[in-house]
Design brief:
This protein has 392 residues and is an alpha/beta fold. Helices cover 42% and strands 15% of the residues. The longest helix has 24 residues.
Length: 392
């Protein structure tokens, strides 16, 4: 059995976009289906928090907490990282003149959430303009520090950037921010399952991430870590029974997030099966998976840079399982291309599935490849040949 056979991906498509929505292995989908059948067999027993749901969620919480190395009592569940970012932003006591600092590499949805909260509260959003390509992760620190003012209340930063596929030095950003009395919210959407995490050592004020991307869990499943002293302030985006339910030796923080109205908890409950699948995929467990995917991403980037006659846009140490390569928009003019049009050409004409992004302006694009365990070098070779043809 080949590794790819664990997934239900269309064999006629070279799927190089695990980073967008993930892909769930068959064994995890089967576990979720078993849970759905159990739920529908006796909905009250399964869903009522006072029956079985609370204990089931706590088992998952213990598993995830062990993976990211924090106390389980500091983890709440959210539908996805965007949900977690919104929950934190909407809970901040911002006032007119306060500033939220974001970066130009940030995920658009979360940057939009920051702007929305700023509009409601009279706060301002400032942007650290971090270059791409960049010489080192020091560039990230330098550009963020330039934008910090006495009014900066929060830094929202990606751990692994979505469009540019870079691992940002969040530990150093957190140290810098805390020295100035500034809180940090880390959007870790891509990090679990891609790189090792120790949130206790990292010490962010808030950290939110997805289970459905590199952990390969079912969709609509993620977590939100909040430091204990801030948990009374952070509320879910949907207020429900948890707001006044007896907590029974549980924090209000967890009680509220565990129940935000009727929902399907099976994506969360299947997460331990996803983690177990990844841990047993290779003899040396997750560390071997991280290294193999990283090595594949480095090799893939080399192939694409050679095809496009460009240099790697960052050090190898700044990428995990994803890599982005800058595109010179002028080389695609004969195809009257936009990034969206190029992405469609790659998919419709060549059955290559990967995103193409416009960055800061119409002349700066990049394409991003994801290298999960099921991806193979020949897929990248074929992409390189197609790009050479399109730019020739």
């Amino acid at each position: 059995m080949q590794i790819r056979d664990h997934w239900q991906l269309n064999p006629d498509i070279d799927f190089l976009n695990h980073g967008s929505f993930g892909a769930c292995p068959s064994v995890v989908l089967q576990e979720q289906q078993n849970l759905i059948s159990e739920l529908e067999n006796d909905p009250i027993r399964f869903l009522a928090p006072e029956r079985e749901l609370t204990s089931k969620l706590d088992e998952v919480r213990d598993t995830v907490a062990s993976l990211v190395k924090v106390p389980a009592s500091d983890l709440a569940f959210v539908r996805n990282a965007t949900d977690g970012v919104n929950a934190v932003l909407n809970s901040l006591p911002l006032k007119e003149g306060d500033q939220i600092l974001i970066t130009n590499h940030g995920y658009n949805a979360c940057n939009n959430a920051a702007r929305h909260v700023a509009e409601k509260t009279g706060a301002e959003v400032t942007v650290a303009e971090i270059p791409f390509p960049l010489d080192s992760d020091t560039d990230v620190i330098v550009e963020i520090e330039k934008q910090i003012t006495p009014q900066t209340r929060l830094i929202l930063i990606d751990h692994v950037t979505s469009p540019t596929g870079l691992i940002f030095p969040v530990e150093q950003v957190i140290s810098l921010a805390h020295a100035k009395g500034i809180q940090v919210l880390v959007d870790g959407a891509h990090a679990p399952g891609m790189i090792p995490l120790n949130l206790t050592a990292m010490a962010p004020d808030y950290y939110t991430a997805n289970h459905h991307k590199w952990l390969c869990g079912p969709k609509t499943s993620g977590f939100l870590f909040v430091q204990p002293e801030l948990q009374t302030q952070v509320r879910p985006n949907l207020i429900s029974h948890g707001a006044n339910r007896k907590c029974r030796n549980r924090s209000r923080f967890i009680t509220e997030f565990d129940w935000t109205g009727t929902y399907d908890p099976t994506p969360l409950l299947a997460v331990p099966a996803a983690i177990l699948f990844l841990e047993t995929l290779y003899p040396e467990g997750l560390d071997q998976l991280y290294q193999k995917n990283h090595d594949a991403a480095v090799k893939a980037r080399q192939v694409l840079c050679h095809a496009l006659q460009t240099e790697p846009p960052s050090s190898n140490a700044m990428i995990g399982s994803m890599a982005s390569v800058p595109l010179d928009a002028t080389r695609f003019t004969k195809h009257e291309c936009s990034p969206a049009a190029l992405q469609q050409i790659l998919f419709q004409q060549h059955r290559l599935e990967l995103p193409v992004f416009q960055l800061w302006d119409s002349d700066h694009w990049c394409l991003r490849i994801s290298m999960q365990a099921y991806n193979e070098v020949h897929q990248i070779d074929r992409l390189g040949s197609v790009l050479t043809e399109l730019t020739g």
